[in-house]
TrEMBL record:
SMART domains: Excalibur, SNc. Residues 29-156 form the TNase-like domain. This is TNase-like domain-containing protein. PANTHER family: BLR1266 PROTEIN, EBNA2 BINDING PROTEIN P100. InterPro entries: Excalibur_Ca-bd_domain (IPR008613), SNase_OB-fold_sf (IPR035437), Staphylococal_nuclease_OB-fold (IPR016071).
Amino acid sequence: MAAYATQFVMQHGDRMPELNLANWTGPSPAPIAGVASVIDGDTIEIHGQRIRFNGIDAPESRQYCDDAKGFEYACGRQAAEALDKFLAASRPVHCSFVTWDRYGRFVGECRRADGAGVAAWMVEHGQALDWFRYSHGAYAAQQTKAEKAKVGLWVGTFQKPWDWRAEHADSQQPAVSQPLGIISRRQVAQSYSCQPRRTCSQIGSCDEAQWYLSNCPWGRKLDRDGDGVACETLCYTTTNGRGILAD
């Protein structure tokens, strides 16, 4: 049986990139329940086990989107915070196993303690997309509702998360992601220049963003809320819904 499974994966691997051989050769894990730590808009951690929601895809942690006025905002962080707030309303989370993905994560169907489906809620509120490749349209109705209501991602324009990852190869390493609340900014030593014009998604550190804000004629665009902090997702982390200046 194991030999057959190996041959099947080798022949059809290009059509099933998210599957892990352990799903074919080993027993299915028991359901997991507990208080979840949010990794990003489609991934949580319970008792040290990473769990990827089946059939949906949310913006990556470092992904930016455009709002209705064309201004950039941290849609990846917004999706994670929306998920964190949703899960906190009815704990614990219960997740049943579907498969393993290529990163060794448990892919599952998750519900809050009150029975509310997590993936469906995220899509219906515009914080994630129905990933037809894996959902086969399970959340198409919720996505249509969100798009018509122009909520979440649908209020402006955005790049589909799977396309964004294809352009940002270093974003395809979920194992190094940290739970919401302890994500700190990267320190990048470089010389800054007002040319060319940059967006938050192209900036590598809080120091760099602040330099552009203070020294470039276009820098004010990086501080949408006018609080003096540019590209806040680089400068702040989130703990219990409150912004904390990153170390």
